[in-house]
Amino acid sequence: MKFKLRSKYKLIPEQKRAVEHLARGILDDKKYQVLLGVTGSGKSLPYEENVLVYEKAGRNTMPIILPIGELVEANLKKSRRLFAPSINPKNGKQEVKPIIQYTRHMSPKKMYLVTTSCGKEVKVTGDHNFWVLREGGLRLVKTTEIMLSDYLPMPRRLNLENKVHKKGFLIDNLLKRKAYFRISEIKLASALRLKKLLDYQKYYHFTQKNEGLNTSFLHKLGFEDKTLNKIKIFTKNGFELPIFFDFTKELLYLLGLYIAEGHAEKNYLLFSVHEEIFQKVFYRCVKKTKIKAVERKYNKGDFQINNSLLSDVFSNLCGEFSRNKKLPYWFLELSEKQLSWMLSMYFSGDATVASNEIQASSASKKLISDLSYALLRYGIKTRTRKKIKYAANTEKRTKRQYFEIVISGKNNLELFKNKIGFVLRRKQIKLKKIISNVDNTNVDSVPIDGKSFRKLRESLGFSQNSLSKAVDCSRPHISLVEADKRKPSNKLVKRFVQVFEGVDKSSSFTDEINQLKAMSNIFFSKVKEIQVVNPPSKYVYDIAVEENETFLAGMGGIYVHNTFTVANVIEKLQRPTLIISHNKTLAAQLYQELRDFFPENAVSYFVSYYDYYQPEAYIPRTDTYIEKDSDINELIDKLRLAATANILTRRDTIIVASVSCIYNIGSPREYGHFVFEFSEGMKISREAILDRLVGLQYERSDFDFHRGTFRVRGNTIDIYPSYLDEGVSIVLSDNKISEVSQIEPVSGKMINKFLTNFILYPAKHFITDPAKNKAVFDKIKYDMVKRTEQLKAQGKELEAHRLKQKVNYDLEMIQEVGYVKGIENYSRYFDGREPGDPPYSLLDYFNEPYGKDLPRGKAGWLVIADESHMTFPQIRGMYAGDFARKQTLIDYGFRLPAAMDNRPLKFDEFMRRIPNFIATSATPAEWELSLAGKENVVEQLLRPTGIPDPLVEIKPTKTQVADVIEEIKKEAKKKQRTLVTTLTKRTAEDLAEYLQEKGLKVHYLHSDVKTLDRTDILDDLRSGKYDVLVGINLLREGLDLPEVSLVAILDADKEGFLRSDVTLIQTMGRAARHVEGRVIMYADKITGSMQRALDEVKRRRDYQTAMNKKYGVTPRSIEKPIREKLVERDITDQLINEKFVNYKTLPDIDIDGLTPMDKKKLTRSLRREMVLAAQGLDFELAAEIRDTIKKIEIN
């Protein structure tokens, strides 16, 4: 069955865009996406901004710099496997990471040009992310949040393969010319292949008359290199070139000279070579490359090469005139030596050696950017700047903008001299001279935070004097660094790190030292200017880079970095879906909503089924063993079992789960094998059916018929599946099933007589296969013997005896009844897992039928992390808490080491098991944002209702309780509800009791309230049974209560987790469902968290208000029905099964409808209630309960 969403709500345009984006991302195999419920704008670069990417071909890596628009447009439909240099913010190192997505958006109305002090610049949208160095640490900020005091990271050098590039293929560079080749230059076998591509006449003239054929056919033939080497291409004018050019020193010299002093006309190249040594080099180059050049008669020093093919190649590779000059697109593929030949010739022609630096200017911005990248091959850091000067080689003296690249600083100048140098001897001599006079290290300084550095120095026991001696610098130098009056050089910072690492033997300051080390691996340039500019192109573009989410862009290279919508995504994708929530209350609300959105589909609820849980533990200090004790909620257990049954049988399944989904529940394959399928007419004996039922962990109970049991009445067997609300009845006749029907469990009334067949799933997730028991038992016994010997060797005789006794008892129980309390500790053996292997969880139940590692875009299921900023940290933390307790049990002989493998998944195991995720949150954490990538963050700016974020009022804490009472009364008169948040459970309960004494209808809500009761309390608040709800942390993310118009936050100025900016924003958001919503924060001061929360809420409110005015939207409160309860529970069932109810009045009880077993349970429960009533001095209720007990006993 397909997912079919039913709702009266319509998607607004923004939601439609979000649905389309998310669905397209999943279909395009985008693993991680974020649905952000706050305002924002696109994060992209304009078309012409350059980016550096790599393409891997076999063992070779081919780097290329090209406009981001060209890159994205070429890869939107079918993307290639490309890579990008990326900075790792943890260690500052450059890493090559794959590009995982290409994105194009419409341009916004304004963009920003970010320029650094060294002249590097990049044009981006306002919400594009940058790593910046601020206050001594790297921070991720938006463009609009960058400060002029920030430093932007850049690479120290480009780490590329240093392989010699031998040949260049010319055909791709002939864009304007019609060029040809002949049959005499290719093999006969290749000529025969052309027969299929050409008509007869063309083929005849080509093969028989040796006429030329257009070079476009060379691509179709796919010749070997040896064949291509012999081919020459020609034009009808007689110009000729080999199809390959060898990248010799002379050719690269010639290209460098052309970039500096040449230009291309239609049929010839022109070089201006006036210095004698240049002319000698030029003559040598053209002679070696077999190119004919002539000196112009009337312009001495101007040399002309009359070859239209060569003109086409040079102009395409390096530009025609000064304003569009560039380095050849393959310049980064050259070896460092080859590149140095081209650069040496260029700088010899165009550069000036000034008093303390090298300068080269050009009218081409692209060329200056390319030169910056090229010099990074050698670790040479440059500065670029704009300047206005008179244009050269023009008739009129007009001023134009030029771009200048500058190499300064002793280290950079020495690198240039040794790695590149000048062809002109006079410039080389001058360079050596200025190097001997220059002592400037400021161009390669590290902007560390002086206060943090001083703290680290003092913590490691160094005085300024002792540290100066250890790193070989002056004491005043360190004093200036710590006063932020001087920035240390990169070399000095590396010496600091080396000395600090040698002293920090205990690794107490590893993080601080690693941060210092990371900063020394990055070149930082201070932000000089941020300008608002008009978008230069119709579209803006972005790429997503795996893990680090940064790439090099711009001139010279800078590193640049909810339920209804989800329901529509599910319907659009038609995939089984797992939705993970961080608490049971929110999970229950999501389950109710999705159940109503998808009434015809299988919507399931999967959370921990314990109302009470005491894990098995041992306290060595007091020699106290605590046996596992738990109170399983039968209704939640039913929903869990229904979830696993649904996912194995129906594709239209949605499971809303808590982090319980990462805990061990046994192998889905084993669970799926243990099914009992029966149908009308099937030949099977009564005993065989009973054996199968016992094997599936169903218990026989002829009198107390409840979930997970069966009863036998003659030839009729009634089964109550653990995961259903209805029973199944089998009627036998002569060892043959004559009838299968659905029944109402209590009355036995037939519901569906025409149930021809039925598949019965096990009553428990942990089951054992009797056929495998012997092998499993042997393995357990072997491990038991091995472990007892280890314990004895350690002198732990008591522990060895205890372990042997425990294991033997458990094995006997499993052998006899197929189950034992704590069987999950042996799950690794029954699942066939190796030690250390991850357990089977709900994720494996999805992967079993629908898989994770399917072809691109075909992964069969979807993961949605609701309120991801809370959910992911919770998943990450589950494993550590389980580990310590288990280790103690193993050490003292209560469990085998295999118990360690009954655990929750580690976070990396969880990530490997999911095919993708969509993270939804109004305040997503940095982790999911960086993992998803900028283009995979979908923002919903506006609420469809038009309700802005609530107004916030701050009041003093001194009279907060008295004041909140008055505020609650005001809201109650308007039949509106109030939420009050406190800091502790005790405070919540005491305040609720005090408010009740004041005549208010109140209840509290916190984690001690039972799972199913929480949703009932929320429903009661909405229906008007309560006017106010007092809570702590449950009144936050995701709670959707349209009747709530006031949120009161007590003690808002107590900094901490419960009063952080994220928590405050989420809590205040509960009042954004009502058109009169408001928030009161009780505080005596405004903390940093409060201010950040207030600023964010104001920003969202202003934006929503502006959009409402723009589009004429009138805010209206959410209209949301009070949905069916999570599960319907009879009040008598509560009294019978729950240990402590503590009712204020005794509800009506249908005594006549109870079974004898239920009467006994109810009597015990009522006796407890009677004692509690008496202890509370409620003697009237106690007497009423006493009389009810007597009636039950007499009946």
From TrEMBL:
UniProt name for this protein: UvrABC system protein B
Domain DOD-type homing endonuclease: 254-380
Gene Ontology molecular function, alphabetical: ATP binding; ATP hydrolysis activity; DNA binding; endonuclease activity
UniProt-listed Pfam families: Helicase_C, HTH_3, Intein_splicing, LAGLIDADG_3, UVR, UvrB, UvrB_inter
Domain Helicase C-terminal: 960-1122
Similarity comment text for this entry: Belongs to the UvrB family.
NCBIfam families named in the record: intein_Cterm, intein_Nterm, PRK05298.1, uvrb
Protein species of origin: Candidatus Woesebacteria bacterium GWB1_43_5
Domain UVR: 1160-1195
